[in-house]
Amino acid sequence: MTLEISQTKKKILVVDDDPGMLRLISTMANPAQYNIVCVLGSEEAINLIGKEGVQQFHAIVLDYHMPVYNGLDLLAYIRARDPSISAIIMTAEHDVEVVTQALRFGACDFINKPFRFRQLLDAVDKAVQLTLEQRYLESMASEIHEIIDIHKRINATANLIEKKRYMDRYSVSLETIFYPIKVTGGDFAHCFPVSEDRLLLAVGDVSGHDITAGFISSYFRGIVRGMVTMGADVKTICRHFNEFLINEWNHPRHSGVITSIAVCFMMLDFREGVIRVVAQGFPHPWLANSDAEIVQLTEGREALGWFKDLDIQEMVYALPDNGTCLLWSDGLLDLAEDQQLCPFSLAHYLLSDVDTVQRQRILQKRKDDIVVMRITWSDESHSDKGEIQWSKCRPIYLGICNGGEVDRIDEIQASWKRCLVLMFSSLPADKLHEIILCIREAVLNAMLHGCCKDKKHECRVQIAFDAARKILMIRVDDEGCGYNQSEITAQADANDHVSLGLQIIRYYTDSISLNRNGAALTMTFDLAKELN
Prior knowledge:
- With 532 residues, the protein is of the alpha+beta class.
- It has 3 domains: 10-150, Response regulator (Rossmann fold, 3-Layer(aba) Sandwich); 155-390, 4-Layer Sandwich (Phosphatase 2c, domain 1); 395-531, 2-Layer Sandwich (Heat Shock Protein 90).
- It contains 15 helices and 21 strands.
- It has helices at residues 19-28, 42-52, 71-81, 96-104, 117-154, 211-229, 234-249, 330-338, 343-351, 356-363, 409-423, 429-450, 485-489, 500-508, 528-531; strands at 10-16, 34-40, 59-63, 87-91, 109-112, 160-166, 170-179, 187-195, 198-206, 261-269, 274-280, 286-289, 294-296, 315-318, 322-328, 370-379, 393-402, 458-466, 471-477, 511-515, 520-526.
- The strands form 4 sheets. A 6-stranded antiparallel sheet has the order 6-7-16-15-12-13. A 5-stranded parallel sheet has the order 2-1-3-4-5, sandwiched between helices.
- The radius of gyration is 34 Å and the shape is elongated.
- The two termini are 60 Å apart.
């Protein structure tokens, strides 16, 4: 970096215990360019700096050999008060050790006596330039820190745990986390309580990882807040900001990389009992209910800032009495793929407060900003116990395989095992083995009988955890005719044939139920004792 030195005189502090040397320097320096302040000895210099400070000077010239405090002692004292000041050390000795110490203490140049005066002036010119550059960088760093601080204050909901009640009936828990690659980033998660019966969630990802991305992220949320307050709907907000990005921010007259925003809006309307979703370029949100069903919400659309004619669609879904929605940015999907984990289990794990060492070890491998939002609700009017349950069904695994993949059962099993181990690290090994064995047998049955070993037919494995009751739920769906209820619940007599796999499932599970005319098997495991 090169800064142009202004025409104002620069103030130089010269410290030497030789009055003749001080007089010589002050006489030969250009008075139009420099204001030379001469100080006799280190003690007098310390008194002057103590009264007037260091910031007024643009460079200092110090003699090494002085009584009481030598030049390096004085340099350490001065730079402790202003690390940006540049210093030149003068000495009458060709001492390599002195040079080494001078550089270590922060001196920018070293001059041996006697010296040519032009040599000293050139050194002073360079020292002044260096001081100006260092002070400029410090001021810029200060401004950047202020911008980052503003971004963090605006983004305060990015690491939030909030519990509220809607319509005096729904218990709602909202949790978010934000792990940027740098000190600031473009990912964000925000909630906007619209009324006593509606809650708007916004999760997004601005392209880039710099201060510009952080600014656009904060600016976007400000626009959303203002427009929501004025009664605008989500589709109007998306169109408005898309026009801003295309017509103003990304205008051809502005150089630089095009900025876009991938965003997902989710409106929970507790009065109407629906979820309204608008997603533009953002990963699909997911919904899980108390029956361990995991459902993908909405379809992917273009991100804001790409096209002038933006295709915006609002999808509407029924709001279950009890459920959980998960939203995450691409950064989580990339990290989950790298760790060979289902994103559901990784999202819940990052939201937990257990095993911080392992969590940081996993997060060190991320390649992008990560934002995760989890919202859980429960209708208290339908609660058997009549008590608030902030945490309900948490989806932790979703896998789809086909009937032709029987030979890959070990590989498929490893995928759900990794997720269970991550989520339940404190679970005894024998209990974990029982759960994994039951899932394996249910999936094998679905492949062999439900899908008839045909790769055209699929079976679906869904695992969820009721955090309130500490119950693990596993649901296996296939396309076949399904189990007979008597196979599941009745005790086999001497004439009945019950497969070994079904016997294992009946023996280890705490309960079994059927859905979809027997084509969906749900197993539960009560882990309250093991996880307490």
